[in-house]
Amino acid sequence: MFGSAAIAWLSTQQPIIVFQLLPHTLGLGPEVWRVLSKCHDIRNLGEYEGDLNVDERIVADLTAACQAVSAKVDALKLPSNA
């Protein structure tokens, strides 16, 4: 598994890779990472081209994807310092 520094670097360089790692790191499928990737693309279009096309469906899908990620992260067993 990647360390947090590697994930942080990857997220700035290749966000799609971070999204595609979700099945391997959190056991989440393409229904989650594809939504996150799509929203990242929408954000880029809004920021770089001024074309921010957000509708209720993508907001609902993003909310569900974030809740799925959050639930998996909350369930992680963090290593103890012992």
User: Which spans of ≥5 residues are poorly predicted at pLDDT below 50?
Assistant: none
Distance between the termini: 21 Å
Number of helices: 5
The helical percent reads: over 70%
Structural class call reads mainly alpha
- Average pLDDT, rounded to a whole number, is 83
Radius of gyration: 14 Å
Q: Got a strand count?
A: 0
Shape verdict: elongated
- Summarize the helix and strand pattern as letters: HHHHH
Largest sheet: none
Question: Approximately what portion of the residues adopt beta-strand conformation?
Answer: under 5%
Written description of the protein model:
There is one protein chain. With 82 residues, this protein is mainly α. It has a domain of 36 residues. Helices cover 72% and strands 0% of the residues. The protein is built from five helices and no strands. Helix 4 packs across helix 5.
Features:
82 residues, mainly alpha
Detail the topology: elements first, then pairings.
Layout: H1 4-13, H2 15-20, H3 22-25, H4 30-49, H5 56-74
Helix pairs in contact: 4-5
Give a brief rundown of this model.
This protein is mainly alpha-helical and 82 residues long.
